[in-house]
Amino acid sequence: YKRVTVKSLVDMKKHGEKISMLTAYDYSMAKIVDAAQVDVILVGDSASNVMAGHETTLPITLDQMIYHASSVIRAVKRALVVVDLPFGSYQSDPKEALRSAIRIMKESGGHAVKLEGGSEIKESIKRILNAGIPVMGHLGLTPQSIYKFGTYTVRAREEEEAEKLIEDAKFLEKAGCFSIVLEKIPADLAKKVAESVSIPIIGIGAGNGVDGQVLVVHDLLGITQEFNPRFLRRYLNLYEEMGNAISQYVEDVKSKDFPNDEEQY
Ligand code: KIV
Ligand code: NA
């Protein structure tokens, strides 16, 4: 396996090769995702929703993110593993941000961190980068500030917010981020952002004019059911398939069909 690095991603953009990225939060799923040649695995704070059942990403802790990330790292041979800094682990001051990023790198073995926000978190980004830790940005819909906006609707539809987003992307590039996630913004704007910077822009609900795509793996596999945004392409309906398999197991236990003569000692 030739490992994907921060540099290979920038080269992929240069050569026009699209970048594939998916989340994973545990060893078994990360093994499947990595073997399928996904370029970047994101240990997203969406684990707060998907793994823990919280309504938002806010409750997940740094310790919990480290647990998820270390599980993923043990499975991965090829992908670049990016770990979200959770809400509350980087906003209060740049030194805390650096301490949190260092804990992720040391205790999980992750390869890079992701932070939500633009110029507001400038000092934190600089400190983390100065320590030699690669940083991925995240602009557009930033779920850690959901209570500021009140909804998960499309962002930057207005001129002013669109201008600020382009400025923030340029700022993040200049600060030294190796890539930026753009979440749920108009496709035309996302394309414009991707053309304005030389670092790869990875979109989710940001159209086809960007340099790569990211989805939550449980959404793509149809393990989650209630979440149905326009941008989601479901490749399987595992909720139903897994449910059917498990119902069959229950039936086989009840009917004494399982275990049969070959399935015992
Ligand atoms: O936490 C997450 O899954 C994310 C992606 C949606 C980009 O940040
Ligand atoms: Na996230």
SSE string = HEHEHHEHEHEHHEHEEHH
Spatial gap, N to C terminus: 40 Å
User: What is the highest CATH level, the class of the largest domain?
Assistant: Alpha Beta
CATH domain topology of the largest domain: TIM Barrel
Low-confidence stretches: none
Strand pairing plus helix content: what structural class? alpha/beta
- Indicate the percent of residues in helices: 40-55%
List each distinct ligand once.
Answer: 3-methyl-2-oxobutanoic acid, sodium ion
Number of structurally distinct domains? 2
Largest sheet: 8 strands, parallel, barrel
- Mean pLDDT across residues: 97
Please give the number of β-strands: 8
Short description:
With 265 residues, the chain is of the alpha/beta class. It has helices at 6-14, 27-35, 47-50, 62-73, 94-108, 122-130, 146-149, 159-175, 187-196, 217-220, 238-254; strands spanning 19-23, 40-43, 80-84, 112-114, 135-140, 179-183, 201-204, 212-215.
Outline the fold blueprint.
Blueprint: H1 6-14, E1 19-23, H2 27-35, E2 40-43, H3 47-50, H4 62-73, E3 80-84, H5 94-108, E4 112-114, H6 122-130, E5 135-140, H7 146-149, H8 159-175, E6 179-183, H9 187-196, E7 201-204, E8 212-215, H10 217-220, H11 238-254
Parallel strand pairs: 1-2, 1-8, 2-3, 3-4, 4-5, 5-6, 6-7, 7-8
The structure holds 3-methyl-2-oxobutanoic acid and sodium ion.
Binding site for 3-methyl-2-oxobutanoate: 45-46, 84, 114
Active site: 183
Protein name: 3-methyl-2-oxobutanoate hydroxymethyltransferase
